[in-house]
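User: My notes are a mess, but here's the protein and zinc ion's SMILES. Can you give me a structure?
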Amino acid sequence: MPKLKCVCSEVINLSEIPSPHQYLMISDQKYDNFQGLVDTEVLYREMIITVKCPTCSRLHIFENGFDNPAITYQLES
Ligand SMILES: [Zn+2]
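Assistant: No problem, the inputs look usable. Here's the predicted complex:
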């Protein structure tokens, strides 16, 4: 997914690696399964990719991977 169009019309470029717009989340329970030295690739696969719009700060959370629609959260005004 090289680009994501936000509801605010911003086109977020995700082709840059690492991306300044992409964040990685993991639940506290899943993170607790990791102990000692960690294989970062295994950890990465457990993470939920989140994209933050640089214009409106909406969060687009891809809980089921980039192949499925994101859940979008908007800041309260
Ligand atoms: Zn936006």
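Residues 40-46 form the longest helix (7 residues).
User: Great, I'll file this with my notes.
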